[in-house]
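pls ignore typos typing on phone
guanosine-5',3'-tetraphosphate + seq
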Amino acid sequence: MSEAETIQWFPGHMTRTKRKIEQSLKLVDVVAEIVDARLPLSSQNPDLDKIILNKPRIIILNKCDMADKKATNMWLEYYKSIGKLAIAVDCKSGRGLEKFIPCVKSLLKEKIESAKKKGIINKNIKVMVVGIPNVGKSSFINKMAKGARAKTEDRPGVTRGNQWFTIGQNFDLLDTPGVLWPKFEDKLVGEKLAFCGSVKDEILDTEHLAIRLLDFLKKDFGGNINIRYKLEKVKDELADLSGLDLLKLIGKKRGMLISGGEIDTERAAIMVLDEFRSAKLGSITLENPPKSK
Ligand code: G4P
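k done
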């Protein structure tokens, strides 16, 4: 992946986004940061801590239907160990979303109590949803708002076009006020996002990406590849194969040939990426949490 490619992925509106989020922070009580449960590190925004400072935050590990259950639990444990509140959800089916409002309320317990003392029984709670592209922000908002239309708010001095959604009594969500970016200067971060389909394929070399994916997977998930494509290789044999060899083997197994009996590696690459992204290779999490101290 060339440097030019990585930069193209996320055209820099960074300063503008940062400013918009900072302005909108004043309007909310909590920030809900959505990440992809298959790669919680690579799908986070590296500067979010600096932008939201000490605003209470809930981390939403989305797409947990496609992630490894054990790994997701490890992530939840990890966040707990560092004092961060996190929940695992699947915005496709809606699984886990029932935890969201109670968790936000638990984050704001003191604020709610102190409002009660002042006679405000149902304190209004406002949450801003943020996350890099494709982590499922719209899916999350749609599921939580159950199709309710956005209310736009154009008050002077407030970010124009803020979109609010009511998701419960006195509970509003603010749609992300700008495009956040991943740590795109890190090649592996970009590649992992691309493996998961979070980066448009048109600007990437499909074959190269599939080869990198197979190279990456063969270490810890060789068994998944073996089973899916009936390769009948033992672990060490797989480890000795290059990503390209593996792609060719898979193409051959699936009968993807072009004239002259050559293997159609382009077709095989599209299939491998497609099958990985639809979890046909199994529920795979690409990153484990850092070791807690
Ligand atoms: P964004 O606003 O953060 O950019 O993300 P968005 O909600 O558009 O979701 C990006 C893709 O991820 C969508 O798929 C969406 O359906 C899918 N997605 C979101 N949450 C989940 C989840 O929990 N599980 C699974 N399996 N997929 C999820 P798409 O292919 O772009 O569109 P479509 O399939 O909805 O047509």
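Strands lie at 30-36, 57-62, 85-88, 125-130, 151-153, 162-168, 171-174. Residues 62-63, 65-66, 90-92, 131, 133-139 surround guanosine-5',3'-tetraphosphate (CB under 6 Å). more later
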